[in-house]
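Researcher: Good morning. I'm working through a list of sequences from a screen, and I'd like to move beyond sequence-only analysis. For each chain I'm collecting a predicted structure so we can compare shapes side by side. This is the next one on the list. No need for commentary yet; just the structure.
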Amino acid sequence: QGGDWGSAISRELGRAHPERVIGVHLNLLPGAQATREPTEKELAALAPGERERALESWRRWSAWSAEGTGYAVLHSTRPQTLAYALTDSPVGQLAWIVEKFQEWTDSAELPEEAVDRDRLLTNVMLYWLTGTAGSAARIYYERAHVTGARAARPTEPSTAPTALAVFPAEIQVPLRHEAEPTENLVRWTEFDRGGHFAAMEEPDLLVDDVRAFFRHLREKG
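Model: Good morning. Structure tokens for this chain:
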């Protein structure tokens, strides 16, 4: 099961080792969003609901690409420079992380509307007390500079049974017609609340969906 970086890792484990993986449950599906504005011809080929979803997917991805990628650019290019600032200032470390909770959770104004403040502070303290702002950012740098790295969208289909839990405030709006050519989707669940940090925001919804998915696979098998 995975979201964020874990979604890419979990998906690739299922793709690479389908004989050893019972199923893959995700709450984010990299590459399934609209990364360019759909053409009139493409929209006309979709059902009305999927058509509106495609437009919303593009709007959200376009907005995030324009305003929300600064952290990733820094992590991917100058992680060590940033690390000194975050390790030197607890307020800086707090702002760096909590801003993402404010942006990516299902909250109207304050992040604690979605995630308890003590949990937010605990999350930040894990980086601050251990001095791991720099090492945590290295994954972005290593991925950006590895030889032969490919984009999030795979080219070969997966045979591993895959489930996707869709939370409305997620930074990417997945499109089923984009995902189906490369994913063996057997379950697609849309929820009415929750965002990018689903395990912290709506743990009961996420856990229930994971259990239902694997229960179905066990009964089917």
